[in-house]
Prior knowledge:
3 helices; mainly alpha; two-stranded parallel sheet; 95 residues
Amino acid sequence: MLFVMPYLSKEKLSLEAVYAAPYFNNRSTSAGDGMEKSYQEILRLLKMVGKSPEGFAFRGSGRYLEDVSRPIRSEAALDLIKKARASTPDDPLML
């Protein structure tokens, strides 16, 4: 529900994307399972507010980063890189 309020307040904030991140807790069987459950919840919330997930919601890594010198390729990481490269000092990308 965290992203729904900024999405509904477009005059105050431009939400460019939502990324599901890996997590592990008592409701998931692994970091990848947690990420997928997070992604499915994002889809459910987007449907509630009438927003298409196409080009807006992205799956993150199915595992935790083990070493900063070995990045993990994911839809979310690739989209974030694309958006960062397209940003300018006049139109910065803020995380």
